[in-house]
Amino acid sequence: MISVDRALQMVLESAGVLEEMEVPLLEANHRVLAEDIVAPENIPSSSISTSDGYALRAAAIKAASSGSPVTLELVGELRNGEIWEEPLKGKQALKLPTGAPLPEGADSVVSVDDTVRESINRLKVYREAQSGANVKLKGEEIPQDSLVFPRGRVLGTTDMGTLALLGVNKVKCYRPPRVSFITSGDGILPLGGKSEPGKHRLPNPFIIHSQIKEYGAHPVDLGIVSGVKEEMKPKFEEGLEHDIFINLPGPSPAYFESAREALNEMGIDLKFWKVGIRPGRSVFFGTFDGTLVFGLPPNLISAVVILEEFIRPAILKMMGHQELRHLIVTAELEAEVKGGGGLTHFILAEVKIKEGTFLVCPINLSDGNAGESLGQANGLVVLPPEIPYLRAGDRVKVQIIGSLRTAETEKMTERTKP
């Protein structure tokens, strides 16, 4: 049996970053850039107005005030999408909308609110302006040839807007892995299957499918295969064609062992098959011609913990991520937790923030089914082997695996319940 840290190290040593691929911009959100993005042009491409108003020379309205306005010649009006060809002279002004390019000769814009239009071609200005007022200069947002986003950046929602602003419609990102999984065992009903005596439904493959997709990988469900070892092998061969292959055994531990034996006979390089972790001690990992192979425990909570602690980091590394682990915070326990046995314990918990402090409450798995507990949890309390017990009020490390809520928002939610 090996430690959690050593097991993760072996997994990550076996996982390589996948090849680059060109991705349409609208599909690139949350992907990792495989290239530097350098600005092909200035943004804005010319100096523009940041206000509806009048373009002019600041020197022409020096000392203008409410009691002593300056009169200018109004030479025309510019609409969005147009440019003004003639340069402005000393006492001239041009009406223009927000975002319009400044004409040659103008260095500032006065707001409509500081002017009165006396006639078609006469404008009174009641406030002076400094050069550059209400103007965004050429390249002020993004200078041409500047580095906008470096290789390795995880693209976010606002990055999509920046890239669109630059005229970029495709980017190079790292390919997400194809993660195949198969459910092995007998008497297991498919999704939507009619209930029959002696047969049962398993939530595991559907929760695993959703989690893999949430990580950014492509899940491939290979269905259900018999728990007989020789019948597993043809389906396992199909799974081994993907970047990652996961076996999800039925409820009997015998299916876990049969799958491990079948894969071992098929020639996988088995790295480990027992880890000092609870839940999830019965897990195996190996490789086959570049494919990462995992055998998850039958128990749903155990399977999800293994997925979070080992498979998620491998998926993220394959996609080019640098941050592979969940955010870890120190929180105050609201109830006791028990570990021990020389194992690292991962305990489902609810984490919230109250008055700037993280509070964590372990979830009692006996209070409901495993699916409900997973839906309730947004954290995993991490109890290392050397700490067998902690009391309420003690401080503990917690992995954040879901959205955080404050105590105040929880009270608001309670008040709005029907």
Draw up the topology in text.
Layout: H1 4-14, E1 20-24, E2 37-38, E3 48-49, E4 53-56, E5 70-77, E6 92-96, E7 108-111, E8 115-119, E9 122-125, E10 135-136, E11 147-149, H2 157-165, E12 170-174, E13 178-184, H3 204-214, E14 218-225, H4 229-239, E15 244-249, H5 253-265, E16 269-272, E17 277-278, E18 284-288, E19 291-295, H6 300-318, E20 328-333, E21 337-338, E22 344-354, E23 357-362, H7 370-376, E24 379-383, E25 389-390, E26 395-400, E27 405-406, H8 407-416
Parallel strand pairs: 5-6, 13-14, 13-15, 15-19, 17-22, 20-23, 22-27
Antiparallel strand pairs: 1-12, 2-11, 3-10, 4-6, 4-7, 5-9, 8-9, 16-18, 18-19, 20-26, 21-25, 22-23, 22-24, 24-26
Helix pairs in contact: 1-6, 3-6, 4-5
Brief account:
With 418 residues, this protein is α/β, with parallel strands linked by helices. The chain folds into 4 domains: 4-16 and 176-319, Molybdenum Cofactor Biosythetic Enzyme, Chain A (3-Layer(aba) Sandwich), CATH 3.40.980; 20-44 and 140-174, Molybdopterin biosynthesis moea protein, domain 2 (Alpha-Beta Complex), CATH 3.90.105.10; 48-136, Beta Complex (Molybdopterin biosynthesis moeA protein, domain 3); 328-406, MoeA, C-terminal, domain IV (Beta-clip, Beta Barrel). 22% of the residues lie in helices and 30% in strands.
